[in-house]
Amino acid sequence: MRFGSHISIRDGYLGAAKHATKIGARAFQYFPKNPRSLTVKKFNLHDAQDCAKYCKEHDLLTIAHTPYPTNLVADNDQMGLVIESLLNDLEIANACGSIGVVVHFGVLKNASNPLEGYQRMIGTLNDVLSKWDGNALVLLENNAGKSGPTGTTLEELVQIRQLTDYPDKIGFCLDTCHVFASGVWDGDNWREVEEKGLELKFFEHLKAVHLNNSAYPTRSMKDRHANIPNGEIKVEQIKEFLSCTVFDDIPFVLETPHEENYSHEDEIQFLNELMN
Questions:
Q1: Are 137 and 99 in contact (CB under 8 A)?
Q2: DSSP code of 150?
Q3: What CA–CA distance (Å, rounded) separates 104 from 24?
Q4: 214 pairs with which residues across the strands?
Q5: Domain interval for residue 92
Q6: What b/e sequence results for 56-81 when a residue is b if at least 16 CB atoms lie within 10 Å of its CB, and e otherwise?
Q7: pLDDT per position as a tens digit, 181-237
Q8: Which terminal residue of the chain, N or C, has fewer Cβ atoms less than 10 Å from its own Cβ?
Q9: What is the CA radius of gyration of the chain?
Q10: How far is the CA of 247 from the CAs of 9, 52, 165, 211, 262, in angstroms?
Q11: pLDDT, mean over the chain
Q12: Alpha carbon distance 97, 55 (integer Å)
């Protein structure tokens, strides 16, 4: 299976790819630019293209992740920045040969109309994708529920994709900590979640998995990642999840704590041994 982790680009995009192979990863995720800013980045195209070439030669799959301030339901004064930033992320990801760019499902707080958030998110996606003709996809990620239940269900991700003008430019990224924290998956009901996903055709458009354990119990609505062997999701439950036949050849990316005494290299090795 394609296990990997989030990797820094401090040594460039090619440097991140080389680090991935060094730690035994078959996939990785990266921030295409400063993760705390929406400022458009003038990136090194040659470095990105070298990354794409290296990944193809070494059979590495990659995904990018939008900066933290990216909000698909941002206020009007911020929306222009979000759109330009996301287009910049897509351009970088495309140059790096990545599958797409992960962006969190938007949550509009204190809205008088519960549908307003969905409507604004569809509008933002249409604005971005009407200007985008590359191969990299927008990958919608499910929420944990810390800001409310919006964006926690498979139905919502599927509906938003279908209601946009450009569904073929959108895929999904499933975060295991988020789907557990929200209570959609309680650790024991994966077969039910799988059946629902098949019914909705969710898995047909699933392009990546954020493989994270949860530091808090199911239905806690708390987004705190834990290492695979040490969280509230039992290792046997994670193994059942990973054994699911609906997953094609997609990246399973760790966003777990990275400590000196337990590195992502150690965790990738643990997963490989678990699934062998």
A1: yes
A2: T
A3: 28
A4: 225
A5: 2-275
A6: eeeebbbbbbbbeebbbbbeeeebeb
A7: 999 999 999 999 999 999 999 999 999 999 999 999 999 999 999 999 999 999 999
A8: C
A9: 18
A10: 28, 24, 26, 13, 27
A11: 96
A12: 8
- 3-state SS, residue 159: helix
- CA dihedral 265→266→272→276, nearest 10 degrees, is 150
Contact yes or no for 64/134 (Cβ under 8 A): no
CA 72 to CA 121: how far, in whole Å?
5
Residue of 162, 46, 156 lying closest to 96 (CA atoms): 46
Structure token digits, residue 192: 């039910």
C-alpha to C-alpha distances, 216 to 16, 126, 142, 211, 264, nearest whole angstrom: 31, 35, 17, 15, 21
Q: Is the pTM of this model over 0.85?
A: yes
> Number of folded domains in the chain?
1
Identity of the amino acid at 144: A
Pick from 232, 66, 248, 246: nearest CA to 141: 66
pLDDT at 109: 79
Residue 120 belongs to a domain with what CATH number?
3.20.20.150
Instruction: Go through the chain and tell me how many residues it has.
Output: 276
Distances (CA, A) of 266 to 63, 139, 203, 232: 21, 27, 29, 19
Model confidence at 259, pLDDT cuts 50, 70, 90, reads confident
Please identify which residue in the block is written with the tokens 């919006």: 150
